[in-house]
Specification:
Layout (H helix, E strand, L loop, with lengths): L2 H13 L2 H8 L3 H15 L4 E4 L2 E4 L1 H28 L5 E7 H6 L1 H11 L4 E7 L2 H9 L5 E5 L6 E15 L12 H5 L4 E3 L5 H11 L5 E2 L5 H9 L5 E4 H4 L7 E4 L5 E9 L6 H12 L2 H8 L1
Parallel strand pairs: 3-4, 3-5, 7-8, 7-9
Antiparallel strand pairs: 1-2, 5-11, 6-9, 6-10, 6-11
Helix pairs in contact: 1-2, 1-3, 1-4, 2-3
């Protein structure tokens, strides 16, 4: 069953004859007759009674005409919806991101975009890790993702922000210098590290530069780790954005040998998207996430 056949049924029913229906659809009369005849053959029932006075719907034709009209209305609605999405008067942008970015960085950017394009919906898909973010992109559940760089060649990426790893010490910790040392940190044994996938880079960093440092990664929630540090129970090393909000008493230091996690905006290479997605991507690429990240601290 073809759309052209449904259009022919509606046109012939409204005009009452094949020739006027052909004029309306800018087709030849034989083309209209063929469309109706093949549809009747597919359905196994006659739709029109042909005579000297034109074409009159059969009882079956009257019922089928209702469905044909509904189908045509739905097609028009589909086209209207597509037109909205092709412009910026509608559409839906889905952004996958892990918690620290979804909490501290994306809402401000989305608010700015919404001020310019209030009819475009933007949804955050909060993911547990960059692995889940990238799977959302692969499976088509997200249009844009925030992941760690460098990334796989299957993605097109742009750097978004760099987030340093910091040492968190209890409020009563005493450090004689503004620059902390690995020896200072080792006094709080074991030091808690983030268990998130981004922690792999940190483990490798510590293995090379502080191999004797006793660490553990047995706590899932960063907020729990920060709370334990605030209560004087331990020290921790976390990405700064993952640690905020940091209680005022907790002491924060850069690592003796600095380390950053580099986060970027990613899209599946050669993927097709509506204009709203590319407009949002353009805004993300121009947004000053570095200043916002510092403000979040």
């Amino acid at each position: 069953m073809k759309i052209s056949q449904l259009r022919a049924v509606v046109a012939v029913a409204e005009r009452g004859n094949f020739s006027e229906a052909a004029l309306d659809l800018q087709l030849t009369q034989p083309a209209i007759s063929h469309a109706i005849a093949t549809l009747e053959e597919e359905l196994g029932v006659p739709l029109f009674a042909r005579g000297r006075h034109g074409a009159v719907l059969t009882p079956a034709g009257e019922r089928i005409l209702q469905h044909a009209r509904q189908a045509m209305q739905h097609l028009e609605m589909m086209q209207s919806e597509a037109n909205l999405h092709k412009g910026l008067h509608g559409g839906h942008v889905r952004v996958a991101a892990f918690r620290s970015v979804a909490t501290h960085l994306l809402p401000k950017a989305i608010a700015q975009f919404h001020d310019q394009f209030p009819e475009v919906a933007v949804t955050i898909i909060e993911s547990l890790s960059y692995v889940e973010v990238e799977n959302c992109l692969r499976e088509g559940r997200a249009d844009i993702g925030i992941t760690y760089l460098p990334s796989s060649d299957e993605f097109t990426t742009w750097e978004m922000v760099r987030d340093e790893y910091v040492v968190l010490l209890p409020p009563k910790a005493k450090i004689n210098s503004s620059q902390i040392t690995w020896e200072n940190i080792s006094k709080y044994s074991p030091v808690i590290l983030s268990c998130l996938p981004c922690g792999k880079a940190l483990h490798q960093h510590l293995k090379q530069l502080a191999p004797s440092l006793n660490t553990t990664s047995n706590i899932q929630e960063d907020s729990t780790i920060v709370s334990m540090v605030n209560q004087g129970l331990t020290a921790a090393i976390l990405p700064r954005l993952a640690a905020v909000p940091i209680p005022s008493g907790v002491q924060v230091y850069s690592l003796p040998n600095p380390l950053e996690r580099v986060m970027g905006v990613a899209m599946l290479s050669q993927s097709l998207h509506i204009p709203a997605v590319f407009k949002f991507l353009e805004m993300l690429k121009d947004f000053d996430f570095y200043t916002l990240a510092k403000y979040s601290y």
